[in-house]
Amino acid sequence: MNKLIFRVVVLALSLTTMFTTSLRADEGMWLLQLMKEQHSIELMQAAGLKLDANELYNPHGTSLKDAVGIFGNGCTGEIISDAGLILTNHHCGFSAIQQHSSVEHDYLTNGFWSKNRSEELSSPGLSFTYVDKIVDITEQVNNDILEGNVSEAAAMGSKYLAKVADKMKANSEYKGKSYIRVLALPFYAGNKTYLFYLKVYNDIRMVAAPPQSVGKFGGETDNWMWPRHTGDFSMFRIYADKEGNPAPYSVDNVPLKTKKHLTINIGGIKDGDYAMVMGFPGSTERYLTASEISELMDAVNTPRITIRTAYLNCLHEFMSKSDKTRIQYATKYAHSSNYWKNAIGMNKAIVKNKVLDTKLAIQKRFQAFAATAQDPLYQDVIKNIDANVELSSDLMYQYTALTESFFRPIEFLAPISLYKDMIKALKSKDKKKIKQLKQDFLESFDGIYNKDYDSAVDRKVAATLYPVYTDLIPADKRPSFFKEITEKYNDRYDLFIDAVYDHSIMSSKKNLNAFLARPSVESLENDPQAIFTNSIVNKLQELKKARIPLADKLAMYHKTYIRGLGEMNTAEPNYPDANFTMRLTYGNVKSYNPKDGVHYNYYTTQKGILEKEDNTSEEFVVPAKLHDMLVARDFGPYAMEDGNLPVCFLTTNDITGGNSGSPVMNSRGELIGCAFDGNWESLSGDIHFDDQLQRCICLDIRYMLFILDKFGGCHHLVEEMTIVK
Amino acid sequence: MFRRSLLIVATLAASLSTSSVSADEGMYMLTDLKAQNAAVMQDMGLEIPIEAVFSNSTLSLKDAVVHFGRGCTAEIISDQGLLLTNHHCGYSAIQSQSSVEHDYLTDGFWATRQADELPIPGLTITYIDKIYDVTAYVNKQLSIDPDPEGINYLSPSYLEQVANRWAKQEGMTLTKATQLELKPFYGSNRYYLFVKTVYSDIRMVGAPPSAIGKFGADTDNWMWPRHTGDFSLFRIYADQDGKPAEYSASNVPLKVKKSLAINIGGVKEGDFAMILGFPGRNWRYMIAPEVKERMEITNFMREHVRGARQEILMDAMEKDPAVRIFYASKYASSANYWKNAIGMNEGLDRLHILDTKKQQEEALFQFGKETGTAAYQQAYDQIAAIVKKRHNASWDREALNEALVRSLDFMSQKEGEKTPYPAVEKLVCRKMIHLYMDYVPASRRISIFTLIEAKYYGDIDRFVDAVFADPKMKTRFGQSIKNGLDRSAEEMKVDNESYDRAHKVWVAGIMKMREKNQLPLYPDANSTMRLTYGHVMGYSYRDGIDYLPFTTLEGVMAKEDTLLSEFTVPAYLKKLYQTKDYGSYARPDGRMPVCFIGDLDTTGGNSGSPVINGKGQLIGLNFDRNYEGLSGDIAYKPNTQRSIAVDIRYVLFLIDKYAGASRLIEEMNIVKD
Asked: Which of A598, A603, A607 lies nearest to residue B225, judging by beta carbons?
């Protein structure tokens, strides 16, 4: 076992240019806890940062990191007042906004502007998570491996890591604090392990959100695109108990007195300015081999594109016909289309940016290095990965087709564990259990027929996707219900779908009541919805099971490969793949040339909103009030020197999904923007950072303030903030 | 920055008048340059004396620029009469020599020896020998000649008589190849006379394949960024004495007196550039109601009628290569102004040209008040009233013209001549008749529709079959169309005459106002030789997007799409790109330049014009205008209008490296700085 996988070498900055393999200036999602050790802080300072490491991250005191947290489950938010005010993206707050919306109070369409704190709306299920403490537990994990307590592969697994984490918490100052979550995660493909103590606040209230025509301006057309004109922000507030500790919602809760909030700078930005983003990038796979990237393109992205195209077209048809359906399916549509477009763009970008060639070149270098390296495992590791891909890619393809066709889009799935329990209870004639299960059936029914569910839509989705799936997957690899269709429904899948949606126990309250009146094993076993659900779940498990040995092996190969890459590039600091932990990326405000003859400027203005305005297209509607304000050009302190209103800007920061809502800060750590997207050219960024073309798209903080203050009339919120020029 | 000195003029102008001519606007008469533009041009970067650009008495740049055919410009680039023009200008010549066996459209054509150069019957080039301002002479003649209908001042036949009279008075000796052209300018407030020499033995020397010369085709037409190698080469032949002559095997390449030196030193943003050429038509002196009329009638019909016909043709062309070759040129010429019409309307809206026009009108009314005349207000009112009155007549005429005159190819065939693709023609004919009926109400249609109703009970299919089966029916159809045109001409005759008179007054007003404000003057384009100057420069396309002034071969490769015929890249060009075998034509950064743009004021007819640097050397070949500038035919907007040129280095690279025609390179006079 190699000891320190991850090498720390004192780096003389002037040397970087001597290494042909030197890391690109802007690439890197750096670990805050390693800034000093890795000397990445010195790279940042050389690039223009005016703060020292402790001001960014201080394990023993307050720092910028204490103004940044996880918003909900997949976004970043930052604190911008001492009263717990959170800034994040509109698309991060989207499900909360939707949750509060109805045809009567359509906050999606009209926006939401609370006039005082009593109007702030509690959003059940929403949380804000601070990173309280980070501990390096690599040695402990390595000891466990050495002592044979855990296998090397299992040491990267969530089961083992959860156990370690719980044990650590029980022996720490956090013992017994239920609002502290503890999480251990592997980094550098398992070459390093960190433990995170997370403080989770659950009383989060909606404070302000612009209408979609601002917060989602440009819709799907502009998503992943530059030039951009989206006011993609929303505001929430953390509430806590009187002591400032996390507490479930209560009217007695008060706004959290935050120990750190970001200062906002409205002095403006220039091309080339230093910019950094702190946040929670979700996942990257920068250390993939060329074979793995091909697998990603062919076995994940391609079937995903095919299936989602059909799904989204189907939803769109319903949504354009009814406001009710539009509101019900808005979030589902947005989620699906986001990574639909991502998959399309990624495949294109991989080709355009010649990512495979780049990876092959790295592999070639690695192979040469391996021949001289001490570790004998390096020699064959790429060959092993390639062989593994050979075996796994068909499984991956099937897996993608199955989940994309049946698990994500189709909501009408039977609660099969409930069905199993009922069968057991009926067989053993356990009356008490049967009575209790009947209640569970009723609850489960309400769960399916929630406020955002429309059975007619779901049925049509199923009818749309069945043939798409069968086009992709040959008969012998399909879930068993297709056999049922052949045998019992004369190959008519539409009849099967009708049976599922009309004749299942859960198909209607009437059916359910009839069943509950006379529950029988037979009706449960013959239930079409249960047959369908069991069948796809079984298929999924079969595929997962088949992949486990391959995945375990691959994890080990990756651990070796990444260790080797680290050794090969010892002279440079190294960052691990994103895993939704806190990172810092630094770079510059920067324009770029997307194609021959075309230059993209680093910022956009209100002029572009008026250019794009099209009140006949729902994506490009501009609210009349905003239109008038933009034409009148009364932008107050938020205008640029030339009198125009800045809207969005570009930086070279290395971000990915999860970074949405992240603060974009200047060299003094002051908030200048809010990151919300990557550009089209960066869609292969999760597997390869492209220095020339990859950009982070940020909302200019001045546009946010203009909308909040002048358009939304929330001057009281602006007064809470610390604003400098 | 590079407009420094002009700024003074522009600021002065802005303070004096809202209808100022912007810095780089203007298609100037060559005879006006010395007095009106020379100082500004020299300030902007012209390094040679203005007499070297144009002179009636010594050789100048104008002697290396000729009218190519009737609608394009070409320049002479060797002392052996080698002509450079656009691929799309040479297109019908290339097509006329092409067959399925020798498909020069697809494969390109390169004459390896002079003897292989292909004569193109019917193709001519025209030299402009002299240009004279004869306003005073014509006005004097008009005052003494009888003019019962009062239309002599515009009548081509009358003006031809005056031209001959003038030549006689001047003691000019006219040969058979000499032509005199006397034309009205500025709505006939001025007259110029052109002495020309026409050569008619013109031979095709070289043309790249359409995949280069028409790269991007309709998708990229009128668009920037552009990557088209839009050029072709021809040669002037003359008799042994260098005199114009009909084609003869014994003719020899013309030893020209003047040809352009070619500079491959490269162009930079901000460089001075000028274009000499023959801009066809524009309408900068229209008033707002005329602009609306143009948008709602002419452009509307072009967009919709041509769009419908093109759809049918494209469908047929995709199915059969022979059909493709036969209709290629017809399709291209239709599509060209179809897209132009769409883009012009978009631009007129986006740039609020109607508002600009209204401001100009207000300024002239104000000027009228200041100078104590109501004439301009009256002229305006007359024009506005005429536009209103002629609405139905122009609408019907435009519908007739687009649907039944321009679109029905078979109708122009002589008796007994076979229609090559009757099935295609029939499809088009049916569609066009239906469209005409959609646009023109029954009471205003041409007479044949009475017959269609009476004899075929309105069944268009049967009528079209009859036209194709029965020459008599075809003749009747043709006669009815002709009668319709005649009738509408007659209907509009009085209005048009009043319009001409009012327009003359209106233009005279603008001229006086400009003269008073010391602004340069230029007349609307009318296919006579003009000069425009400006700078090589990009533009801001949309908020956040700037269009750069240059494109490179990288962009050709990025646009390559093997599935689309418009964006196919020839394999050999790809090979040259991969091996970077660019010879001495690459940019300093190692890339191969392809096209560039500048704020030069051009229009159709300028195709093939030389783009010339401050030293009078050829740096590019003008071939198009950007989409955002299409409303420029009505009003020039300096921030959006750009003319598009092929970089001369790309042309030479293609001749030299791609075609291997070094014998042509050797003829040229190439300099690097």
From this structure: A598
